[in-house]
Amino acid sequence: MSVKERIPVSSIMSTQLVVLNTTDSLEKAEKLFKKHRIRHIPVVSSKKIVGMLSLTDLLRISFVDGSYEDEEAIESIVYDMFTVPQVMVKNLRSVGPDATIKEVAEIFSKEEFHALPVCRDGELIGIVTTTDVIKYLLDQY
């Protein structure tokens, strides 16, 4: 194994975490997605990761087709019908900070995930996305 193959995911993960709690509203989630221009938000319950909410999950339930005068009113009605735990992905895969970038890339290539929580002793310490991995690989050229 070359030195490059042993580079830990902790060297490319984001530690500036935007998180949701299970009690937060989907409206809050939407505001966070827009404000931070992100596509995945880890859902935590007292620092332990319990799920991941993606922008795609949110769009799937809002299904507003633009033919309504007041899109925002309809979105807020839809958002009030669901909770974060109902919409988030629960059967999460996570990695430790020492997992290699190569291992993370293999997970992304085989599974449907586009973001993985990075945890130490069950506690969320970072998030790594397919974009992080692609940027890292591009930097190698």
UniProtKB/TrEMBL annotation:
InterPro entries: CBS_dom, CBS_dom_sf, Diverse_CBS-Domain. Pfam families: CBS. Keywords: CBS domain. Transmembrane segments: none annotated. Residues 13-71, 88-141 form the CBS domain. The keyword Calcium does not apply. SMART domains: CBS. The keyword Metal-binding does not apply. PROSITE patterns: CBS. This is CBS domain protein. It comes from Robiginitalea biformata (strain ATCC BAA-864 / DSM 15991 / KCTC 12146 / HTCC2501).
